[in-house]
Each structure stands twice: as C-alpha cells, then as structure tokens.
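#onboarding

Welcome to the new folks! Below is a worked example of what a typical request in this channel looks like: someone posts a single protein sequence, and someone else replies with the predicted structure as tokens. Don't worry about understanding the tokens yet, we'll cover that in week two.

Example request:
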Amino acid sequence: MPPRTDNDRGAPTVRIRRERLRELRHGLGLTQSQVARALGCSRSAVSTLETKGRAPSPKRLNDLSIFYGVPISELVHEEEAVTLRSLRRRAGVLMREAAEALGVGTSTYCDVETRRQRLPKRWIPILSERFGVTSDDLHRLPDERSPKKEGGGAPE
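Example response:
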C-alpha cells in the first residue's frame, strides 16, 4: 500500500511530533496562547498540533522550527525514507527555488535530488539553511547513486 499523501501531487504525509512540541513549549514556560501569538495563529491551532499531531503547512512547520530553534527533522515523524526530495518538500521549497539558491540550473539540481549525481559538499550549508535542517541531516542522506534509466527522459 502506498504511503498516505496530503495532496494530489503525492507528497508524503508529515506527522508532527506533538509530544516534542509540548516539551519545547513547556521548556520555555509558554502557554499555547503565547505561542499562537508569536506564530500568528489561533490557540486552537497550537492545541491541535500538540494533541492531534496533524501536519501543519510547510510555512507553519518552518515557523515552528525557527520559533523553537530546532531543525524541522526534530519536529516531525519520519514516515518515509529521508531524501533530499523529502527534505525539500517538507520545507515547502520548489525544485526551481532550490536550484536558484544554489546558483545552478533546475536540471542540475534535479540530477542530484534523483541521485544521478552526488550531493556536492559545497551545497550542504546552503541547503541546510534553505530547508531548515542541520548539515548532519544532509550528510546522513543516502550517498549511492541510482542507476541510469535507459532511454533518458525526465524522472518520474
């Protein structure tokens, strides 16, 4: 059975680590209302994140990461293998935007994301910041390259 998706493009469903959110909030001595004001949302939205663990929007997930000062990977359950693509999608970044941040063409970025080419070490600090993850998160990505498909063409 394929993984659940939260949109029609097949992006993997992300589940928030609700217990970690509560722990971070309590560690700062904040109420749900205070967190909601800081994030520009309702208290009930914060409560839902902490009790239901439903996936927030990529922007809200990024805002939570920044607010609590932790990488996004610390706020979500891994429901899929962590790949460059999954990190990019979680951050709400388009492939074109990632390529622009790196100063390369979209096809060059695509070759790395689909593992036809290795992840250049010089990209790691840029992607780390853009995707809201640590450099270690990127260093832990699978390093093997995928076999080339016969006939070429765009990746699926």
